User: Fold this.
Amino acid sequence: MLLKEALAKKQGQQEHLIELNKDEEEEDRLQEIVSIKSGKISISSSGASSAAPKKPNVKGPLDLHFMRDPETSLNLTKAKKQTSMIDACNKKARARTIQYIARFFIRNSIPFNVVRSKSFKLMLEVVGNYGPHLRAPSYHEMRVPLLKKELEYTQNLMKQNVVERAKYGCSIMSDAWTDRKQRTLINFLVNSPAGSMFVRSVDGSSYMKTGEKLFTLLDSLVEEIGEKNVVQVVTDNGSNYVLAEEIGKLKRVQKTIKRGISLVDFFYNHTLALNIMRKYTNKSELVRHGVTRFATTFLTLRRLYTQRNNLRKMFTSDDWTKTTLAKVTKGKGAANVVLMNTFWNDVAYCLRSMGPLVHVLRLVDNERKLAMGHIYEAMDRAKEAIKSGFKGNESKYKAIWAIIDKRC
Assistant:
């Protein structure tokens, strides 16, 4: 009996040891799987794989020397076609990381299209190569030394443009626009075979966009670039640049344009008049004038001229005469203009003067082909079209020809 109890006890101890060994083997296997997934495997002296002990992330001179270039890393990332096991295991970590990136964009009102920027992707590559615990740049570093280095980097990029414009010549380009604060800003650029390079932006609000001041600005830029390097000056089609609006300064044209714009504004500022006008023009809209836009002035007058008979019918109909608007000063003034024969004769004069020039502006403004080789021939054709429109009566087109010749 005692012998049986001793054998049973010994057998139980052996089974317990077997279970402990199994648990240890299972734990070793789990540890090995974790090590493989994390990409850290070390070989012991007995040849078995075991998890490498954690070490602090300390970077020495060799780490800095062999750190992968961000451009290379970015290209390698683009070349990957299959998702590795490590990437699959790190999906949760990536989701957490990019959520912080998104939060940074949202809280600082950064446009989402910035993520398409190559510099943004390069930044992430560099941060990834550095590893954890990167100390962020300070406010002073961002606005002084780092900004200065970036300026030097950009200037080095532009050196090829300077070489190209000295070798082949260049074009000076200017463009004026108005921001949300109603400031008039003028951008100046230099274009050469190497591309377009931004030079400076000038706040021209106090200049009132006068032609004399703009000439001074352009002249100083030519001096800076070098007169021998400048082939041409290219500007926008604003009145102070192209001066196509000089035709609008002719007394007859100026008076007609003013009346036409006032008439269109009257309709669109009074709902009752606008509804009646739409009834008599079969819902055709008029063209509202654009400030300093030569082409829209022409389009405004042309649309009025095509609707002249319908507008006359409107202002002589009971639909109009029975309204209270027909009895106020502005209503009477609009009716007088529409029923005035000399007004429509003046509109016809303006259309004959401006129409051919609008075709030239369309040629210059297109982006499908270069217009410089055709501009002089186009201006000659415009002059002939104006002459033909007035049936060769020199007294009617002489002043217009003089303006065209001056600009050419």
